[in-house]
Amino acid sequence: MKRTLRIEILCFVFMLIVAVQLSLLLITRVTSPTNQGQELLGKKAKSWELIQSLQGEAIICDRSHDNYEWCFLNRPSILDKNSTTFSTIGSQSGNSTEKIRPYPRKWEKLTMSLVSEITLTTWSIEKPCEIYHETPALVFSVSGYTGNFFHDFNDGIIPLYITLNTLFPDQDVTLVIADFTNWWYSKYEVLLRGFTKQPVINLNNQTSTHCFTSVAVGLISHGPMTIKPIQNPYKKSSFLDLRSLFEIAYSKCSATLPPPLEAGKPRIVFMSRTGNVGRVILNQDQIIEAVKKAGFDVVLFQPTKFTYLCDAYRLINGSHGMIGVHGAALTHSLFLRPGSVFIQIVPLGNDWLADSYFKNLATGLRFQYLEYKIRPEESSLAKIYGLNHVILRNPNLIIRGNWSALDTIYLKKQDVNLDFNRFRMYLEIAFSKANMFLDKRG
Ligand SMILES: *[C@@H]1O[C@H](CO)[C@@H](O)[C@H](O)[C@H]1NC(C)=O
Ligand SMILES: *[C@@H]1O[C@H](CO)[C@@H](O)[C@H](O)[C@H]1NC(C)=O
Ligand SMILES: *[C@@H]1O[C@H](CO)[C@@H](O)[C@H](O)[C@H]1NC(C)=O
Ligand SMILES: *[C@@H]1O[C@H](CO)[C@@H](O)[C@H](O)[C@H]1NC(C)=O
Ligand SMILES: *[C@@H]1O[C@H](CO)[C@@H](O)[C@H](O)[C@H]1NC(C)=O
């Protein structure tokens, strides 16, 4: 009880700071895109309705959120070669210009400085359209924290899904990628096919002018690992719906087949962390033996930046559960089938992250979720500081809004040595749940 109260107080203080900063932000923003736009924002219309009711307005921006903003140029637009500016085509239709960095971590100055700034303007340029797209463009950046598997989804793929469903639920869209990297494109190319039939455009290397029916810039985020329902006449959004897009995309690529299932046993994917990265299971071999003894068919999975997601999807979608210590790789649980078992092992001080990232996801995907919170004696920090140190006894007191303490001590410095007997009890529960899922769904 005490602990949750403290977290709530922390959250409240954090929200208060955000609210104050936000109001400062709004006060300093004197240049409003349009009067009608401001009026609509004041009414907090849902974004899709906002666009539908634009009527004569050329540009509208929603900058009212703490974590993201987006702008929409509601005119046929042209993107000049080697440019980050979208201009209206033909005769000039107003006098406004908006600049925006399309990455949904608006509150992090340093991260945002890595993100290209995109300009939308109603000033037209005299250039012919060399490539005409009969769709709107959606521009977003794959800079920032992209490259970390959690952030790839949390700040990229999931907001992309939300944005498409919010702004363009009824039409196909051309994706225009700022801060493009070949790594990102080869990692997510297959998945993007689940979002749009149009070719993907690399903003950074164009040698032709491109024209679009309209342009949106920016990604909408609903918060850490969150998809809130979006009501519009065309689509309802949820993690389950997003996952069905994954299924469509990944059923169209050829993958290395996972090892054959052991007959009659539920398969669990064991997410393994190794090296000097923190949150490693020091007695992993012993724990894997226990997982096998509990009756599971165990597959060890050690993803890297270059893991081919078709292979990962095939393996995980074909399994009945996942087990792992809190960390970015657990984002692969997005590929588990609804109803699967998911055990998150939570090191000291990781509670808030564990809940707001992967427990959230587990709820959204209807997993049978189990959480194994380690005790101080199972933490490698006990060896460094001693069992009675405040770092072990009261992590919340140390963390208290101090990200650097959380990061250096509890995320990077801490490994775990699981209590074999306690962990076995969780495995028994997990096994009976996974077995039921196997019986029901195969
Ligand atoms: C694109 O523009 C940048 C600077 O604006 C310039 O350095 C670069 O050479 C240009 N590239 C091409 C292909 O025109
Ligand atoms: C465009 O707007 C700016 C500021 O609102 C103003 O100073 C400028 O004169 C306007 N230009 C035209 C051509 O209307
Ligand atoms: C731009 O980059 C994409 C992706 O790497 C590539 O397919 C395309 O050919 C490049 N275009 C030009 C004009 O270089
Ligand atoms: C995912 O699992 C379901 C249920 O077992 C199966 O029907 C489907 O083909 C699998 N998808 C892929 C891409 O393998
Ligand atoms: C945050 O934690 C770090 C690491 O424990 C510590 O060095 C620093 O003084 C703390 N900062 C504040 C403001 O408490």
UniProtKB/TrEMBL annotation:
GO cellular component: Golgi membrane
Keywords from the named record: Glycoprotein, Glycosyltransferase, Membrane, Transferase, Transmembrane, Transmembrane helix
UniProt protein name: Protein O-linked-mannose beta-1,4-N-acetylglucosaminyltransferase 2-like
Localisation per UniProt entry: Golgi apparatus membrane
MF (Gene Ontology): glycosyltransferase activity; pentosyltransferase activity
InterPro entries the record matches: Glyco_transf_61_cat (IPR049625), Glycosyltransferase_61 (IPR007657)
Main location as per UniProt: Golgi
Xref: Pfam families: Glyco_transf_61
Domain of life, per lineage: Eukaryota
Record-annotated Glycosyltransferase 61 catalytic domain positions: 244-343
Transmembrane segments: 7-27
UniProt topology in membrane: Single-pass type II membrane protein
Organism field: Spinacia oleracea (Spinach)
